[in-house]
Amino acid sequence: MNGTRVLVLNSGSSSVKYQLIDMRGGDWLAVGLVERIGERTSRLKHTPAGGESREWSEPVADHDAALKAVAAELAEDGLGLDSPELAAIGHRVVHGGRRFTEPTVVDDAVLAEIERLIPVAPLHNPANLTGIRTAQQLRPDLPQVAVFDTAFHTTMPESAARYAIDVETADAHRVRRYGFHGTSHAYVSRETARLLGRAPEDVNVIVLHLGNGASASAVRGGRCVDTSMGLTPLEGLVMGTRSGDMDPAVIFHLMRVGEMSADEIDTLLNKRSGLIGLCGDNDMREIRRRVDAGDERARLAFDIYIHRLKKYIGAYSAVLGRVDAVAFTAGVGENSAPVREAAVAGLEGFGLAVDGELNAVRGDGARLISPAHARVAVAVVPTDEEMEIATQTYALVNDSGNLT
Q1: Are strands 204-210 and 144-148 parallel, antiparallel or unpaired?
Q2: Is the pLDDT of residue 403 over 60?
Q3: Are 115 and 96 in contact (CB under 8 A)?
């Protein structure tokens, strides 16, 4: 085996996040971000392990230029893309449809299928494709692996994945529930089992991935059986700028009565709804500050957010039948003690409770915040999507013989 390093790339519409990981010990060697690609105010921040961060701001025209800048920063630390230690490049791809249920080595057919799925992921798949193609140009000899956000959720039964609409219409247009944040849900459900000292196959977990985008999943024995996001990331929980669950007839009402176009409604529901639509802020820290200061709009936004969370905890408790743990993760889930406390409050009948002192403790690692001997564990489990992508990528290229 020649290389033990994996470069993880997460190419967004105007940004590239990256992390270089040594799989021998699971340690990151460098991490960074290029943002505002295509603007005059583009910025790159690069941090090597054990060293000081470097940051510069100058125009970055496109993703090709961004990845070449990343390669230059890595080379400055002796970690260049030409290193024989680099085993593969792993790419986050948001939508894999029904076909991609596992990480996949990219070839022309894979690229064509990712491109075919653009209509159901118009904001994400094009950027993901650009990142893959640019990386191929930089290292055409290296395995490029696509790890799909939707893959973890492909184990959902049809009863959970199907919408109750005409089957022929749904199949013709690939309308079904796919789910997202899959790499996070996979990682956190497995780490929760580890925290409990049990095998993932023996544990039922409700994972609450709470960031600006938010989703819940019901995981039975390491396999997803339900998740809150659907055809797109709009369905489900109240999010920073997205509405989450809503009567579909609201759209028709806004078209007829509000004379809004489809594009205007799309913008409303994805960018001007959720917390920012309710109170003008999508930062939970600011919302909590306003709540503590007596702001009623912020209080209502927080209460709606928590009400939706409770509904999903209750629903997924019913779906799973037995719940061993509820795990909070991502920016809000890991850092907002008030959200965790409020989400569990009143659910003692489900075996859920939070210890106030444990919940108030801030820490970097996975930890339990439920009282000793609680029937259901409540945990804070920091997500690591980059490590999950690297782990899946490295396992695939080893198993498939792409390393010699």
Answers
A1: unpaired
A2: no
A3: no
pLDDT at 404: 38
Assigned token pair, 175: 């309308």
HSE of 41 in the Cβ direction (CA atoms, 13 Å)? Answer: 0
Per-residue burial over 139-154, b if 16 or more Cβ lie within 10 Å, else e, is: beebbbbbbbbbbbbb
DSSP letter for 21, please.
E
**Least confident interval from 135-139, 213-217, 273-277:** 135-139
Buried b (16+ CB within 10 A) or exposed e, 286-323: ebbebbeeebeebeebbebbbebbbebbeebbebbeeb
* 1: pLDDT strictly greater than 70: no
pLDDT value at residue 122: 80
d(CA 153, CA 185): 9
Distance CA 70, CA 132 (A): 14
Task: Give the residue numbers annotated as catalytic, written as ranges.
Answer: 149
Closest CA to 301 of 345, 240, 368, 353: 240
Please answer whether residues 146 and 161 qualify as being in contact, where contact means their C-beta atoms are separated by less than 8 angstroms. Answer: no
Alpha helix locations (H) across 162-282?
Answer: 167-172, 182-195, 249-256, 262-271, 274-279
Tokens of 176: 């079904």
Confidence of residue 401 (pLDDT cuts 50, 70, 90): low
Compute the chain's Rg from CA coordinates: 21
pTM reported for the whole predicted model: 0.91
| Beta-carbon contacts of residue 252 (< 8 Å; ≥ 6 apart) | none
Q: Name the pLDDT band for 184 (thresholds 50, 70, 90).
A: very high
Query: Which secondary structure element, helix H or strand E, spans residue 204, and what is its range?
Result: strand 204-210
Position of tokens 């007839």? 249
- The residues, any chain, with a CB within 8 Å of residue 136's CB and separated by 6 or more, are 106, 144
Report the amino acid identity of residue 52.
E
